Structure to design on (308 residues):
C-alpha cells in the first residue's frame, strides 16, 4: 500500500548516516512516502544538516532533489508554530488527517503512532507496507488507492486493453481519478488512456462524433484526456497487463479499471521503478513494442475532440 509518514526534519537531517538509512526506505515502489510536513520540510532538513561534512551535505542536497520526485508528497496540512514544535503539530494532525505513522527523534508522550528514529526497522509493524492489496471495484475506492501517484505526477497513463470511454463502468473510475487530480491542483497533468484495438471497437470517426456525450461532466475544466489505440505485433509482446503508469512510479491494476461494484475486488500492486519506467516507455508514440492504430484523439473538458 502507499502509506504517508510524517518525518521530523531534525531527526532525519542531523546525521548523514541516519539520513541514508531512513531515506532509502521510502519511495512509490516501497509503499512508504514522506509527507512534506511542514511545507518548508526540505528547507528544514537541509538546515538540520549544517554540522555535516561539506561532501556529506552536498550528497544530502542531491538526495533531497531526487526525493522531491519519488519519495515525498505534498501534505496540505496546516502547521502552527504557536502551538508548539514539529512533534506537537504532527500529533495534532493525527486527530484530523492522520499519517500512517510519525517518525521522530523522541516520543515523550508515548503515543502509539509515533516511531522513535532509533526503532525504525523494516520489520517494525508501523513500517510494514504490503506491495499488493485488494480494493473494492468502485471508482472512488480505486482512485483513493492510487491517489498518492495521481496527485504527485505530471503524466498519468491508464493502460487497459479493454478501456472503453463509452461504458459507464470505465467512466466512473476515470471521473474519480480526474477529480482527484484536479482537487490537488493538477489541471496541467497530461492524462492518457491506452487500449488495444479490436473488431468491436468503434472507428475513430464515431468516437470523434460521440465523445462529447460520453464525457459530458466527466473531464474537469482545464483538463483533457488523450486516447491511444494499439495493436500487438506479430510475434511481439502481448497487451494484457493493466497499469496506472506515471512519471514517478507505477501500479499494476490486475483486473483493470472497470468499476464492477463493491461485491468484487481488484488487486493492486506496486511496480519497481525500473519496470514502471520500462512500461511507460513502451507506450510512447514511437514505441517499438506495439503498433499505434489510427489517429491519437484528445478530448477536452468542453467535449471538443481533435486529432493530434
Amino acid at each position: 500500500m502507499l502509506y504517508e509518514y510524517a518525518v521530523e526534519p531534525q531527526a532525519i537531517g542531523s546525521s548523514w548516516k541516519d539520513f541514508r538509512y531512513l531515506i532509502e526506505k521510502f519511495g512509490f515502489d516501497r509503499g512508504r512516502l514522506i509527507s512534506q510536513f511542514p511545507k518548508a520540510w526540505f528547507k528544514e532538513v537541509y538546515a538540520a544538516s549544517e554540522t555535516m561534512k561539506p561532501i556529506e551535505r552536498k550528497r544530502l542536497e542531491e538526495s533531497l532533489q531526487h526525493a522531491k520526485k519519488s519519495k515525498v508528497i505534498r501534505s496540505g496540512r496546516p502547521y502552527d508554530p504557536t502551538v508548539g514544535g514539529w512533534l506537537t503539530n504532527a500529533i495534532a494532525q493525527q486527530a484530523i488527517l492522520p499519517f500512517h505513522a510519525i517518525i521522530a527523534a523522541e516520543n515523550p508522550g508515548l503515543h502509539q503512532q509515533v516511531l522513535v528514529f532509533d526503532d525504525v526497522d523494516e520489520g517494525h509493524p508501523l513500517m510494514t507496507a504490503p506491495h499488493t492489496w485488494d480494493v473494492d471495484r468502485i471508482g472512488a475506492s480505486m482512485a483513493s488507492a492510487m491517489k498518492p501517484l495521481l496527485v504527485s505526477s505530471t503524466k498519468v497513463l491508464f493502460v487497459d486493453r479493454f478501456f472503453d470511454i463509452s461504458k459507464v463502468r470505465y467512466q466512473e473510475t476515470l471521473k474519480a481519478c480526474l477529480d482527484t487530480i484536479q482537487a490537488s491542483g493538477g489541471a496541467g497533468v497530461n492524462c492518457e488512456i491506452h487500449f488495444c484495438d479490436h473488431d468491436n471497437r468503434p472507428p475513430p470517426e464515431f468516437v470523434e462524433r460521440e465523445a462529447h456525450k460520453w464525457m459530458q461532466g466527466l473531464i474537469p475544466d482545464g483538463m483533457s484526456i488523450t486516447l491511444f489505440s494499439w495493436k500487438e505485433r506479430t510475434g511481439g509482446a502481448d497487451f494484457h497487463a493493466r497499469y496506472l503508469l506515471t512519471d514517478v512510479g507505477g501500479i499494476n491494476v490486475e483486473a483493470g479499471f472497470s468499476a464492477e461494484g463493491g461485491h468484487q475486488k481488484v488487486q493492486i500492486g506496486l511496480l519497481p521503478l525500473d519496470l514502471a519506467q520500462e512500461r511507460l516507455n513502451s507506450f510512447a508514440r514511437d514505441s517499438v513494442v506495439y503498433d499505434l492504430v489510427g489517429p491519437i484523439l484528445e478530448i477536452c473538458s468542453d467535449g471538443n475532440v481533435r486529432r493530434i
Residues 66 and 72 are 9 Å apart (CA to CA). The longest strand covers residues 261-270. The first helix runs from residue 9 to 13.
